Amino acid sequence: xxxxxxxxxxxxxxxxxxxxxxxxxxxxxxxxxxxxxxxxxxxxxxxxxxxxxxxxxxxxxxxxxxxxxxxxxxxxxxxxxxxxxxxxxxxxxxxxxx
Length: 98
Fold this sequence. Notes:
This protein is 83% helix and 0% strand. By secondary structure, it is an all-alpha fold.
């Protein structure tokens, strides 16, 4: 094997080793974050259950409030959403009919 070919093989191996290193580090970091987040997921679930059990909000009200918040956070265009909703309603009828 020539020197040039050998150098290319070494470079490819180093690139693969570097890629493997990044993949492993990424996965380790992601798993650590998921593990750290887990207690907060339980708290979020408990909060939802508490509001439902106490009759403060229904599941649908919570779902709607969270959906509205996410849309607000993402700066969704409500006019465009309303237009699509009206189009769907025109084509498929009211949701009770579906």
